[in-house]
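Protein modeling request. Please complete all fields; requests missing the sequence field cannot be processed.
Requester role: graduate student
Desired output: 3D structure, token encoding
Chains: 1
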Amino acid sequence: MGIKIILMICIYPVLFILHFALKYQADSSARARRIYFGVKLTAEQAAAPEVRKVSGDYNRLLGILLAVFAVLPLPALFIPWFSVYFTFQMLWMFAVIAGYLLAFVSANGKLKQIKREKGWRREEERYLAVELKSAGMIRKVNFRQFALPILVSAAAPAGSFAGLFGERLRDMSVAIGSFACCTVLFYAAAVWLDRLPVRVISTESEINVNYARAQKQLWKNFWQRGAWLNALYTVCMIPAFGRAGGLWGIFLPASALYLAAQLILLVRLLKKKKDLDVLYAGHMDMEPGDDDDKWAGGMFYYNPRDRHTFVQSRDGSGSTCNLARPGGKILMVFCGMCVLLALFSCVWVMLTEFTPIRLEVREERLIASQLKQDYAIPLVSVQEPALLKELPSFSKVSGTGMDTLLRGTFRVPEEGRCQLFLNPQNTVFIRFEYGGTIYYMSGGNDEETLEAWNALGFSQN
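Delivered output (461 residues):
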């Protein structure tokens, strides 16, 4: 159950992030941006009953999606097979993403149709819009602002690897280091967004400068606070991984609080972005013309005539990629490969859980295999074999930990690192030493384990 809850904590926030991010498309800030579901409309056009109906239907649909998708993962926690639960979570995540994106794309298509039927579309207006140098050179991010949270994050895996917190945490230093790397990613994201071209909203230089400064300050604050949250979360992993019962007592509560705090930061960012756009609404006199055709579904920018790989997002909340450029096409391929990899992982986990393990003696070797041959140990090298009816306590270092399969490197008290290849639901296990390493093994069932033990040439006693 513990690993299921951890998986849900990692994936569940996707629902709320998408909900609040896409709800931002229909709130009052749209009036300031003059962009409604990726479609450019005037204030008078946006006030038309047909447009308001599309917005109302969209908000109701988002509420339904939130209610349905929020409930679905809860009963799934009681699915007895981890691989089935894992597959469900992956499919649930893709369904959430698809459901919300389709809701937005549908609203975009309806507004485009209304715009065509009403004859609201204008010929694209051409004008000269050059980013002002003073606005484009504004920088709000520097390394000093992120140095301390990065150092705090790095200290956790460094101290664990050095053995300052015990041998158990030495084994977990790589896992803790992966959390620490996220702090560096927060800094990298802040630098990247800080150096993107600013949005020119006015013909007046001072207004562009002030708007760019305020927008970049919002993003800097978001990433800096996120980096500090991640640093504190990384430090919490030391007692979580180092203490008995740390999974339930520290890791799960800390993960829930961490994700909730990051979600709150995101919601606050969107609210402040909305307030900023509303504040500058009266100064937005740069009309970019009717370029709806360059935005597929109102979200995805495709313009072969634009040489920029990264451009301002349609709603002004950040940046997006021009899918017509080589970089954009590479990004599409990468995203497609990630989806395929996720689906493949579901198949792989199912095969791993439902393919029985095999333990047999063949050609003077003890063969342990499942999807492939995992171990082939010469019988003459087996030392101190023992038949156990109970497993010692252990903690996983790396490998697979399922209800029907323990495979990989585990730490056993007073024995250190050991290799496990067994079905923990069995009642008979073989322990032996080979090449200076202790092994715990079993077959798919007790009968197979006893056959392998007898083939070793030892009695059951």
